[in-house]
Amino acid sequence: xxxxxxxxxxxxxxxxxxxxxxxxxxxxxxxxxxxxxxxxxxxxxxxxxxxxxxxxxxxxxxxxxxxxxxxxxxxxxxxxxxxxxxxxxxxxxxxxxxxxxxxxxxxxxxxxxxxxxxxxxxxxxxxxxxxxxxxxxxxxxxxxxxxxxxxxxxxxxxxxxxxxxxxxxxxxxxxxxxxxxxxxxxxxxxxxxxxxxxxxxxxxxxxxxxxxxxxxxxxxxxxxxxxxxxxxxxxxxxxxxxxxxxxxxxxxxxxxxxxxx
Amino acid sequence: xxxxxxxxxxxxxxxxxxxxxxxxxxxxxxxxxxxxxxxxxxxxxxxxxxxxxxxxxxxxxxxxxxxxxxxxxxxxxxxxxxxxxxxxxxxxxxxxxxxxxxxxxxxxxxxxxxxxxxxxxxxxxxxxxxxxxxxxxxxxxxxxxxxxxxxxxxxxxxxxxxxxxxxxxxxxxxxxxxxxxxxxxxxxxxxxxxxxxxxxxxxxxxxxxxxxxxxxxxxxxxxxxxxxxxxxxxxxxxxxxxxxxxxxxxxxxxxxxxxxx
Lengths: 261, 261
Hints:
2 copies of one chain form a homodimer. Helices cover 34% and strands 21% of the residues of chain A. Chain A has 10 helices and 11 strands.
């Protein structure tokens, strides 16, 4: 059992709380029994698991031993210091990040793509990844300035979806979309004034861009959209919460796309 | 200027942070210039406004004086102690709660109703009120056990929608739905196995029940639903975030209902 905060592996976990630390090492961590179980089942590349000495979920511990995953326990006080959550569940895993090249997307014959242009709130990004996964989207293209996929808050909101939804990170959107546009019908979501989302033209390969919570989609990214689309709102509220708007748009695209594809 | 924490009005504001204090006085408070401006424009019954002596929004202060609303300033240290937000904007208003009788609903000829069965998270309740407002719903029926409409977190997530969307609080759902069912088509949202929401039968008067985040809709409430409905999910995620699911369901009902009503 590790009892010191100064242990190199404890220091490593702590460094993964920052975006800089994650980028430097190519690693990240997840917390909680449910998420770790999903990561194991999805055959994610787990380096090691840390649990608090008072952690009591024997099903997970058995799974860790069965799969021969490197693991060690620490004192509860040490665990609290490395956990990201306010009331930690007492177990976390350090994983290798997936390295993906967005050019892969060009190979897809049929696809629904979610493109995030500097969506900043980690909860929103995580929720959008989870919704995209539920709605049968093929991939998420996270443009530069979007909250990091491996941010603990993004991972929590995404639930297990981070393990089955390919997310392309830090993509230079104007360049990528210029290439994509040749093969993909690119729609851009705007709060009002676009084509009603239930009437927007869909193609075998369709992408939808969601913009920053405050500023919307940047001009350079917007230049690469074929159509702007909006949600019809018969009521009085001026706008929707960003995740809700993205959720409704993905639902409507998915509903229509899957009825013909 | 009030400089003491012990001032009766300061004590009153502090009591409104708790559900018990709000129930006892029939009052509540809202924070921030934007929300207060919307409350003034919606002619809400504002008892008084408290601002921090370093508050600098002269447009709002002018509006407060123009409308002859009772107001006073406090030292910044006093303000921080009564504010609900971590980084307060320096202004809050105390308002009278709306007293509504859910039997009013029986008078509506055409209506879309959102029914909340013990939805617990204040952020979810506020977001659902905001979405219902955007989607042209007529009213929200908040069953017992649902987060209080006047909880500061609910009010923040609802944005200005609390001022135009009638919300019926603390409604005894089984009894109310038994009466409503005679005039309203009641649908119940379930994670899977219900009729696809884009095919569910809609009537001139339609209500949709959303259940508790963990337990779903209680049996006694479910007994009063004519149909269960679900969102078609072609993807892999097992479920959606509760607010997202409610948002998609309200969107789909609204889209179809407004095309015929």
